[in-house]
Design a protein that fits this description.
globular, 444 residues, Rossmann fold, 2 domains, alpha/beta
């Protein structure tokens, strides 16, 4: 059954959005305002999803100020005007055992969420990533005959591709942010539309704090800046912190003038970082809530894998991506992952190269432990998914870039060319908002 939204009769998907291409700027222009007013249930569980959902809520309100929002999310969504049932960002967990430990909490939240959907008579459910839990939200919505839209869908194309069955069965419309993602979902029979990645739009709108940067440059501007981004989840910070610090030590052993700076996601992460610095007798400045400024101030960045790589691309920052996991999860992901890279920027880069697929062939049952030489050469951000210490290799990239300005400049030129190819939509949030308010998007 195809469920509908955006009209009182609920008789079928409604009008179509036509996105005009702006030939003068080379970007897709946003559609016109709608005037509709609706009630939405949002569900986001990660800090990054909270940010994207909040931005979408703000955009919807610009088109339909009387629209109402309720659901699961985080503080950014609440600030944007969404009435939260619970702050889900406090439960941002990874891996099977961590989910099992919170099973009964998640079950209670699910029951409460379904009750709210029923009593509030919501017009549509909008899911933002977080598939382990959001599949259950989608199922609850289906039982209530409420249409489900996936904004920022999970990367089912990247690993455990059998999950496409859930997408086909439970989701009415997928708003895709990546070109190859849109193609893959479309090939697998999903109703889908490419809107572009909202991260690029959000970054364009972000304003740096000039007063902060003035003070920062006065204190640290005499040296090459290496910004350290340890992730948004507690588990990520704890897992990657030692490798990041070892990388810093190796860099400074060859280039003592390099100034590392931590951009922490939260005050809780500040405490974790301070504790580990004290244990290693190291001193590195830590700032919280200054990620935008510290990325823009950096010469290079070392980051835990995640959507932050898109901000690094947008800000033209040569970067190395790391992600430390245990030996067993490392092997398991080799059995389920189908993409050649884990970093979005590298996948985007591969997608722009003619004749280059981002996927391993179907005949590859277990993907290689390491990318081959050709795949490594195509990386825009050197990436290290590992269960062992790779700090020597990571440090070598920074030493090479910082000690040879021509290499750093060449890398920045590569990133600039890639950004021009992939950032082609003027306002993904506008496209998403109007899709939700009008009830239907047709693929171009």
């Amino acid at each position: 059954m195809v469920r509908t939204f955006g009209d009182s009769g609920k008789t079928g998907f409604g009008t179509t959005i036509v996105s005009a291409f702006c030939h003068s700027c080379g970007k897709m222009a946003p559609p016109q305002s709608t005037g509709y007013s609706m009630k939405f249930f949002f569900s986001a569980g990660e800090p990054s999803g909270d940010i994207h959902a909040a931005a979408l809520i703000e955009t919807i309100k610009q088109h339909a100020p009387d629209s109402k929002f309720v659901g699961l999310g985080g503080p950014k969504m609440e600030q944007a005007g969404c009435r939260l049932i619970v702050d889900m960002t406090q439960f941002a967990v990874m891996w099977f055992w961590q989910v099992i430990k919170r099973y009964f909490q998640f079950q209670k939240i699910l029951v409460d969420a379904k009750l709210v959907m029923l009593l509030e008579k919501v017009d549509a459910v909008v899911l933002v990533d977080y598939p382990g839990f959001n599949w259950h939200i989608a199922k609850a919505a289906q039982e209530l005959e409420v249409p489900v839209i996936y904004f920022m869908p999970p990367q089912v194309w990247a690993w455990a591709q059998y999950r496409i069955n859930k997408m086909q069965q439970l989701v009415d419309l997928v708003l895709c942010s990546l070109p190859f993602e849109w193609q893959w979902f479309k090939q697998h029979g999903c109703e889908t539309v490419f809107i572009g990645h909202p991260f690029f739009e959000e970054i364009r709108k972000k304003q740096s704090d000039p007063e902060f940067l003035e003070k920062f440059y006065a204190q640290y501007g005499h040296a090459p800046i290496l910004t350290l981004l340890a992730g948004s989840r507690n588990q990520e910070v704890l897992a990657n912190l030692d490798d990041m610090l070892s990388t810093v030590e190796r860099i400074q052993s060859e280039l003592p003038q390099v100034q590392p700076i931590f951009a922490a996601f939260s005050n809780e992460h500040v405490v974790m970082i301070q504790h580990r610095l004290a244990e290693r007798n190291m001193s590195i400045p830590i700032f919280v809530g200054r990620t935008t400024e510290l990325i823009r101030a950096a010469d290079c960045c070392l980051a835990v894998s995640g959507s932050v790589s898109l901000e690094l691309l947008a800000c033209n920052k040569p970067s190395v991506i790391c992600y430390r996991i245990g030996w067993l999860p490392l092997f398991v992901q080799r059995c389920f992952r189908r993409t050649r890279y884990i970093t979005l920027v590298n996948l985007l880069g591969a997608g722009t190269q003619r004749g280059q697929s981002i996927f391993y062939g179907d005949f590859v049952r277990i993907i290689p432990k390491e990318p081959n030489e050709a795949d490594r050469d195509r990386m825009f951000f050197p990436e290290f998914l590992t269960s062992t210490d790779r700090s020597a290799e990571m440090a070598a990239w920074f030493v090479r870039w910082i000690s040879q300005p021509e290499l750093l400049a060449a890398q920045k030129q590569r990133l600039d060319m890639l950004l021009r190819e992939v950032d082609t939509v003027e306002s993904p949030l506008e496209l998403a908002a109007v899709a939700l308010l009008k009830g239907n998007l047709e693929s171009a």
